[in-house]
Design brief:
Elements: H1 3-13, E1 26-30, E2 33-36, E3 41-44, H2 47-50, H3 59-71, H4 82-93, E4 99-103, H5 106-123, E5 131-135, H6 144-149, E6 166-169, H7 174-180, E7 185-190, E8 193-194, E9 200-201, H8 204-216, E10 220-224, E11 248-251, E12 262-266, H9 268-271, H10 287-303, H11 305-325, E13 330-336, E14 339-344, H12 349-358, E15 361-362, E16 364-365, E17 369-372, H13 380-395
Parallel strand pairs: 3-15, 5-6, 5-7, 7-10, 10-11
Antiparallel strand pairs: 1-2, 2-3, 4-12, 8-9, 11-12, 13-14, 14-17, 16-17
Helix pairs in contact: 3-10, 4-10, 11-13
Bound molecules: pyridoxal-5'-phosphate.
Pyridoxal-5'-phosphate (PLP) binds at residues 49, 105-107, 110, 139-141, 191, 195-196, 224, 226-227, 252.
Length: 396
């Protein structure tokens, strides 16, 4: 089936939540390349929105998934699951978490985190502490609670009344956070770098002060690492840049290398609050998803991908900053590791994204910002190649 036929079928039968999609469909991938049905080859600098960290069609990942599919795909959380227990151990051994719960997506992981924070306060004798503070322009997902957690009107308007118990403060304004905290505050939840809204950093001083405010007031600090986690920012988890250890952090996207999985990762005192029956999932942590994520960890270690993200990310950012000095269309280059935002002026980011597509590069775009989230396997040479094409496109 070719793109046009797929498009017609999609238009007829698929809900129009994604609007006019980019007119291409990919038949296969390898590394950072995606091969379209018309034979053209694209370089993937989006990685399925920060998912395909180990690249496409990685043989270790494919082998692990195949092996698991040949033995058993799914059982139930009624039973003990080896892949699940091993993955939980890996996450805990590499982070500040003591216990993990597996979900199927980022939004679902964040739902679990919100529930865990609430039940922690409830079981600590503070049912009045129910309110979650998040940041303006944050993005935490599309379920009803995570839409309410997301500090952006445009995702909320049609779904009012929103799930109660959320309020928003401006990023990097510690006084605003101090004022917002009261006897009802249960948790503060933030992305260390806001991805969806255009790669905006929460600054180091703010993160530390916010974290300390949480400590002083027995408020749960939740880091949403759905996008920043798994090496994206040059550390395995972005919170490591700030010298803090969140009470809860969430993962999804890159964790399964393309197989859906999310994780709620928590310190023991928090994790203890979930008793049997308080939370659950049919698919969460199933053998297939966990086999994939275990393989992702193996590949990360073997190929030193977290370091590669830091090194190639810094290199790419520097090249873009040099380009920015001689190009008035680039206002700012932001980001860390291989999570980079290029804010443009005088040109629309969507136009540049489409021009890059014509040049066979896949990137993301918000209103004014080009988002780069390439697989963590890219090399300095791949970065150079991209910068050359980007310069050409901006010059047109
Ligand atoms: C920071 C953050 N949290 C949560 C989500 C939601 O993840 P999912 O789409 O897997 O539900 C996203 C998705 O872009 C995200 O970037």
């Amino acid at each position: 089936m070719k793109t046009n036929d797929i498009k017609n079928l999609d238009k007829k039968y698929y809900m129009n939540t994604f609007g006019e999609r980019i007119p291409v469909s990919f038949e296969r991938g390898k590394g950072i390349k995606l091969y379209a049905d018309d034979g053209s080859v694209y370089t993937d600098f989006l990685a399925g929105i920060a998912v395909s960290a180990v690249g496409h069609n990685h043989k270790t990942l494919v082998k692990a998934i195949t092996k698991q599919a040949k033995s058993v795909l799914h059982v139930s959380n009624y039973y003990y699951i080896e892949q699940q227990a091993k993955l939980a151990e890996k996450i805990c051994n590499n982070s500040c978490a003591d216990k993990v719960f597996f979900a199927n997506s980022g939004a679902e992981a964040n739902e679990g985190a919100i529930k865990l924070a609430k039940i922690y306060q409830y079981k600590s004798g503070h049912p009045e502490k129910y309110e979650i503070i998040t940041l303006v322009n944050s993005f935490h997902g599309r379920t009803l609670a995570t839409v309410a957690a997301t500090g952006q009107e445009k995702f909320q308007t049609a779904f009012r009344p929103l799930t109660p118990g959320f309020k928003y403060v401006n990023i990097n304004d510690i006084e605003a956070l101090r004022d917002a905290i009261d006897e009802n505050t249960c948790a503060v939840m933030m992305e260390m770098i806001q991805g969806e809204s255009g790669v905006h950093h929460v600054n180091e001083k703010y993160v530390k002060e916010a974290y300390n405010l949480c400590r002083e007031n027995d408020i749960v600090f939740i880091a949403d690492e759905v996008q920043t986690g798994m090496g994206r920012t040059g550390k395995l988890f972005a919170y490591e840049h700030y010298g803090i250890t969140p009470d809860i952090f969430t993962l999804a996207k890159a964790l399964g290398g393309g197989v859906p999985i999310g994780a709620v990762c928590a310190k023991d005192n928090l994790a203890q609050s979930f008793a049997p029956g308080d939370h659950g999932s049919t698919f969460g942590g199933n053998p297939l998803a966990c086999a994939a994520a275990n393989a992702v960890f193996e590949i990360f270690k073997k190929e030193d991908l977290v370091n590669n993200s830091a090194i190639v990310g810094a290199y790419l950012k520097e090249k873009l900053e040099i380009l920015a000095q001689n190009c008035d269309k680039i206002k700012e280059v932001r980001g860390r590791g291989l999570m980079i935002g290029i804010e443009l002026e005088g040109v629309s980011a969507a136009d540049i994204k489409h021009k890059l597509f014509d040049e066979k590069y896949l990137v993301g775009a918000t209103a004014t910002t080009i988002r780069l989230l390439p697989p963590l396997v890219i090399t300095k040479r791949d970065a150079d190649d991209f910068v050359k094409v980007f310069e050409k496109v901006l010059g047109e």
